[in-house]
Amino acid sequence: MSGTIPLTVVVVDDSLTTRALITAALKRDGRVKVVGTASTPFEARDLIVRLNPDVLTLDFEMPSMNGLQFLEKIMRLRPMPVVMVSGHLASRKGLVEQALRMGAAEWYSKVAPEGGTDPFAGLGDAIVRAADTKSLPPVAVVSPEDRTVAVAKTGVVVGIGASTGGVEALTEVLEHFPEDCPATVIVQHMPRQFSESFARRLNRIVKPEVRLAEDGDVLQAGRVYVASGGERHLRVRPGARRGEYICQLIAAPPVNGHRPSVDELFYSLAKTVGKNAVGVILTGMECDGAQGLLAMRHAGASTIGQDRASSVIYGMPRAAFELGAVETQLPLSAIGQAILNRCERRSLETYP
């Protein structure tokens, strides 16, 4: 957001009451300005053309065309930052994931937080975050025969950290991984209620096995371990045998405002795995993961950062790059193969 000029917003919701509540809530936020409201996608389309808003808030349920159908048209014809709004996110995990995959920048629940009375008190924050994103077109599903196949040797561990835009980015990276990929651990900033369905969806569309990390899991080639959001940090500790590494879930305060934190994962990889690790930092806000990736590089690990042009938000990758933590900066489309190449090189150096 530049200077003090407020972000312009068009609110799309079939409920007159909801439109009024959102407008009233945003009126109290000097960072945003509601310039139009619409009850149908057709009204919204005309307002978007006429007003050219910075951000759109979009309800899931509308007459004649649901929010996802309209989102698909927006991202195909006039990409822009969109905040999806719903009353019951916990029961709509699949819809949320689909919206993010289609290009939505944020999702927001109409349900007031515990102890609160205004269900839209935090919507302004979501709109500001969305405005800092670059809307991406939907990702085409890559057929298995088009995916890169490589032989993954044991002993190398890949750590990946991501935040806003990471759902899309992680999918693209993992689509390059073969069935016998190096053991991979992931921290994606995400509410706890969406972590399990996110891991299940990844497991359906990529070759390796994807699962939520459990305390005590022994890292194995061909498996991807995703940290569950909200309650515990994910670290990697040494196992009983040489070259064996184990997932460790730690109940501790948030780091950099996040739990799990990318920094927590990366610090543990630097300490435990050292030069036999590859660290990757993808799109996301602020700086979580930058210091941990620097520690990995100092420990001899190979480190990769997503470049500005392909990042939805060039926050975490930029912080790491400016700190000197990033050995190689690459566009998203090149990162999956680059990880495999570095793992192959590390494996040949360490495990002849």
Automatic annotation (TrEMBL):
Its EC number is 3.1.1.61, 3.5.1.44. It is found in: Cytoplasm. The keyword Cytoplasm applies. It catalyses: [protein]-L-glutamate 5-O-methyl ester + H2O = L-glutamyl-[protein] + methanol + H(+); L-glutaminyl-[protein] + H2O = L-glutamyl-[protein] + NH4(+). Residues 8-125 form the Response regulatory domain. Involved in chemotaxis. Part of a chemotaxis signal transduction system that modulates chemotaxis in response to various stimuli. Catalyzes the demethylation of specific methylglutamate residues introduced into the chemoreceptors (methyl-accepting chemotaxis proteins or MCP) by CheR. Also mediates the irreversible deamidation of specific glutamine residues to glutamic acid. Phosphorylated by CheA. Phosphorylation of the N-terminal regulatory domain activates the methylesterase activity. Contains a C-terminal catalytic domain, and an N-terminal region which modulates catalytic activity. It holds the Pfam family Response_reg. GO terms for biological process: chemotaxis. Residues 157-346 form the CheB-type methylesterase domain. The active site is at residues 163, 189, 288. Gene3D superfamilies: 3.40.50.2300, Methylesterase CheB, C-terminal domain. Keywords: Chemotaxis, Cytoplasm, Hydrolase, Phosphoprotein. The keyword Transferase does not apply. The modification 4-aspartylphosphate is found at residue 59. GO terms for cellular component: cytoplasm. One of its GO terms (molecular function) is protein-glutamine glutaminase activity. This is Protein-glutamate methylesterase/protein-glutamine glutaminase. PANTHER family: PROTEIN-GLUTAMATE METHYLESTERASE/PROTEIN-GLUTAMINE GLUTAMINASE (PTHR42872), PROTEIN-GLUTAMATE METHYLESTERASE_PROTEIN-GLUTAMINE GLUTAMINASE (PTHR42872:SF6).
